[in-house]
Write a structure and sequence with these properties.
By secondary structure, the chain is an alpha+beta fold. 27% of the residues lie in helices and 22% in strands. Strands 2-1-3-4-9-5-6-7-8 form a nine-stranded mixed beta sheet, sandwiched between helices.
């Protein structure tokens, strides 16, 4: 019976929030801890939204902190009823659309659907094929991207041929359930409604129910996340 109650108490704390607090208290930078695990900071933040952690990462994380499973269980028993003083951030990103007045700065990349593979290959160094052209979006602060919608999985929200103007999200803490995002992986771009993160997987859904269910995206495959600012037809030159 004691083991049963110990398990219930352990599960009652949010392991992701506990890890975030522990790293802060120990003065460990998230990017350094993520690197030790072979992850990017963005991938670590995605994992910190989970509770409990998937078995794939839980043991390794505790080992990096010098804790055994038993020691963690004892810590959990002491902390499970402490008030949570952390609040979820409101959806506002420094990368979001913001009026900046008139400007001719080339801060926009137009990415047609047929050039997606070239975009994925050249993303890290911003070396793209000629089909991906530069443009100016003066109402956007910083770098932004225009991705062309292909197919009908997001119909009727977005029609094929529409361009969605996106800005980069710093990490997964900005993701909100029920909002559409662009998920960039090593294989391509996925434009879907965000549902949840669970056991190292990002669950999404299509607007067109004929395309559901959608295959979950493993956290480690995420290269970049994008917020959709607005949609438009690409200007003709």
């Amino acid at each position: 019976m004691e083991n049963f109650f110990d398990e219930v108490i352990t599960m009652s704390i949010h392991e992701g929030k506990w890890l975030k607090k522990t790293l802060r208290q120990r003065g460990i930078k998230q990017e350094d801890f993520a690197s030790d695990l072979g992850l990017s900071r963005n991938q670590l933040i995605v994992l910190m939204k989970e509770s409990p952690f998937s078995k794939r990462y839980r043991g390794e994380m505790l080992a990096k902190l010098g804790l055994s499973e038993e020691e963690f269980d004892r810590i959990a028993q002491l902390e499970h009823d402490e008030p949570d003083d952390e609040t979820e951030p409101e959806f506002h990103s420094p990368y979001n659309a913001k009026h900046k007045g008139s400007s001719s700065k080339l801060n926009m990349w137009w990415v047609p659907a047929k050039a997606e593979a070239g975009f994925i290959r050249g993303f890290a160094k911003r070396v793209f094929p000629s089909m991906i052209q530069r443009g100016s979006m003066p109402f956007i602060q910083g770098e932004c991207f225009g991705f062309e919608i292909e197919g009908f999985s997001m119909f009727p929200t977005y029609l094929p041929g529409t361009y969605i103007v996106c800005t980069m999200l710093e990490d997964a803490s900005w993701l909100k359930k029920g909002k559409v995002y662009v998920f960039q992986t090593h294989d391509g771009l996925i434009i879907k409604f965000f549902e949840r993160i669970e056991k190292g997987l990002i669950y999404t859904r299509a607007d067109n129910n004929n395309f559901n269910p959608v295959q979950p995206i493993p956290v480690e495959e995420i290269v970049q996340l994008y917020n959709i600012e607005f949609d438009m037809n690409r200007p003709k030159h």
